[in-house]
Amino acid sequence: MSEVAAEAVEPQEQPDVLSFPATLPVLPLKDTVVFPESMTPLAIGQERSVKLIEDVVSGERLLALVSVRNDEADPPGWDDLYEIGTAAVVHKMIRVPDGTQRILVQGLRRIKLESQVQTEPYLVAEFSELPDVVEESREVEALTRNVQGLFSRIIGLVPYLPEELQIAAANVDDPAAL
Questions:
Q1: Least confident range of 56-60, 77-81, 174-178
Q2: Which partner for 105 in 60, 62, 83, 88 could form a disulfide, CB atoms 3.0-4.6 Å apart?
Q3: DSSP 34
Q4: CA dihedral 24, 109, 104, 42 (to 10 degrees)
Q5: Helix, strand, or coil here: 67?
Q6: In Å, how far are 15, 97, 127, 140, 173 from 114, measured between CA atoms?
Q7: Side-chain half-sphere of 68: how many Cα atoms within 13 Å?
Q8: What is the C-alpha to C-alpha distance for residues 59 and 85, in angstroms, rounded to an integer?
Q9: Are strands 62-67 and 22-29 parallel, antiparallel or unpaired?
Q10: Which residue, among 139, 124, 105, has the nearest Cα to 36 in the 3D structure?
Q11: Taken in order 78, 84, 87, 92, is the CA torsion positive or negative?
């Protein structure tokens, strides 16, 4: 049985301050959306994306995650991307022997593409923050309770999910975080 060798790169420190406007490298995502405050594993295989992640991990670990409009574009260009994305931090990166990478990212803030900075060796753009605006209302309260209730039902139906998740979700007051 052969072992798969992989090299893991751990973060030295997590940036907790992101000032805007921010110039960030852009990682186009196909069939994936990363939301603020969520942790998401991603597989990186495209050559320019591998280079982008190498540079990000050796620097401030920050990048912009933007979904692709046109899945057929290879590699995606500016016209193939949505304008809204998520600023994120790379928490962990594993290099796989076949040249691809696996990364774990955490979304930080919702952002809007303001201007294109460069296209080579990968996309870089300037972004502004696009904060959530949540107005307290009966509808928002009802939707929040509904999401918490549905989440509770899912926890009850999936045997390997711990009940502590249900308690954690019930204690989240911020609808955007929920």
A1: 174-178
A2: 88
A3: -
A4: -80
A5: strand
A6: 22, 37, 5, 30, 31
A7: 17
A8: 21
A9: parallel
A10: 105
A11: negative
Quick one: tokens of 146? 């509904």
- What are the structure tokens assigned to 34, written together? 């990363």
What are the backbone angles phi and psi of residue 154, rounded to the nearest 5°? -60, -45
Q: How far apart are CA 110 and CA 152, in angstroms?
A: 27
Ranges 15-19, 109-113, 133-137: which has the least confidence: 15-19
What lies within 8 Å, CB to CB, of 121 at 6+ separation is 48, 51, 52
Q: Which residue has 């072992």 as its token pair?
A: 3
- The torsion angles phi and psi of 143, rounded to 5 degrees, stand at -65, -40
CB 64, CB 24: distance < 8 Å: yes
What CA–CA distance (Å, rounded) separates 104 from 56? 13
pLDDT tens-digit profile of 161-177? 888 887 887 787 778 77
Q: In the block, which residue shows the tokens 């052969």?
A: 2
Pseudo-torsion of CA 62, 16, 166, 171, nearest 10°? -150
User: Which pair of tokens denotes residue 145?
Assistant: 């309770």
What are 132's two structure tokens?
């959530």
